[in-house]
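Record 1 of the preview.
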Amino acid sequence: MKIGASPNAEPSPALLARWTSFILWLSVLGIVFLTFFPFQAFPVETAVRRVPPFFEWFLGKPSDPPTDFLNVLLFLPFGFGLAAQARRKGWKGAWPLLAAAVASFAFSLLIEVLQSYIPDRDTSWQDLVGNTLGGMVGYVLLVREGGPILQWASDALDALRRYISVRVGGALFLLWVVLGLILGFTLQGQSRLTNWDSGMTLTIGNSPSGDHPWNGRVTRMEIADRAMSSRELQAADSSNLAASAEADVVASYPAAGSDVSAVGIAVAPDPMARLFKSSRFTLQMICTTATDAPPNNGWILSLSHGAQDVGLAAAQKGYDLVFFLRTPMTDPADDEPQLIVPDIFRTSHPVNIAIRYNSAELSIFHDGKLLPYSMSLGPGAALLSHSSPFLRQSEPLRYYDARGYAAFFLCLAFVPLGLVLAFTPFNPGRGASPGWLFIACVVAPPVLLECALVLASGRMFHVVNGVVGASILLGSWMVFRLPQQRIDGSGV
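->
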C-alpha cells in the first residue's frame, strides 16, 4: 500500500536488515520504561480504579492535547519498526499498516490495564487511541521517508565508528565511570540526617504546633540510634518491643497505659549527636487507636526542633499509618515523601510498629513482621527530588517512586557505558582476554558504584544493585551493537 511514497523513499532490504531489530528493541524498552515508571504496583491501594466495569476504567481522564501528541510520538518508532519488520518478511499492500495498527493497539491496551495498578498512573481510552495512531504514523513515515532516514542513520553510524578507536573509547568509558562515581557519591550523601538540629523535642499525641491531636493511646515507645536487624525486630509482638540496649536508646516514652495528651519530652543532646553522626535509627512503638470515634488524621508522635523543623513524624490518616522523614532531599513540611501503610489501624487491638532507617532506606515492621512498604533514598531520588540542583521544579519525592528513581539513575550511569562499548572496536586477540574484558567493562563499574554509595551512606552492600546495573550495561551494549553486527557480518 503506497501512501504518497516518492521514488526510493522506502528503505532498501540492506537498510531494513541493519536497523529493524535495533528500532524495535529500543522502542519497546523505551515504551516500557516511560509507561511503567515507577515500577511498583499496589493492587490494594489502586483497587478503586478497577471497581467499575472494565470498559469504564479508562473514561475518567480529561483530554489534554499535549499529552495526546506525546502518546502518538511515543509509539511512532514502534510502528516504524513493526512496518520495517513486515517489509523484511515480504508483506505487501495494506498488511504492514494493519500489523502496525493491531500490534500498537494490543501493546497499548496491555500497558493501560497494567497501569491501573500503579499509583500516579492514569488509564484512558484516549491514550489507547493515541498510541495506536502513533503506530500507524510510524508506518506512514517508513513508506514516505524511511529510506532517507535510515540512510542518514547509517552514514552517521559509520562516521562515528571510524572516529572511535580503542583508545578514544577507553578514555570515554573511564571518564563516564569516574563522573558516575562522583555524582553517585555526592547525591547519596543527601540521605544522611545532616539537616537535623541537636535540640530535639519528642511530642506524643499531637504535632509540635498542637493542631493535629491524635485520638488514641501510646503504651510504649523507644527510638534507638542504630538500625536494628530484622531478626531483632521479628522478636517483637503487640505487647513487647524488641530488646534494645539501654545505651542505644535516644528517646523513650514509658508512661504505660496513660492516655495521650500532647506530651513534650526534651531529648538529651549527646544521644542526638550520635544519631546525627550515624544517620540511623529504629523507632518502635506500641499504640492503640480509639474505637469510640471515627478515625482522625492526628499525629501519633514527632521528633522536632520547634513547631516547624520536624525531623520525623508518625501519623494516622484514616486507618493508615503515615510516616514522614526529613533529610536534605525530603521535607515533612511538603507532606512528602510519605511512607504509607494502609489499614494498619483497622483494629481495636494494640499494634507494634517498628520503623527502621539505615541512612538510606526506610522499612517497617508490624507486630514483628516485615511489611512490603519501604522507601529507598538513593542518588536517583536525590537527583529528581524537589531539592535537586538539577531539577528545581520537579515533583516531590513519594515513597512509591523510589524504585523508579533508582532505575533512572542506573540507566543514567550505565546506558552511556553500553553505548561506548558498542562503538569501541575491541580486538580480544590483542591484549586482555574476553573474560577479563567482561569483568572490567561490565562487572566492575556497577560494583564500584555500589561501593561508592555504601561509603556515602553507610548502608549495606546490595548485590541486586550490582546485578541490575550490570544487566543494564550489558543490555545496552547488545542493543547498540545490533545495527553494527550487520556491518561486521554481512558487509552492509
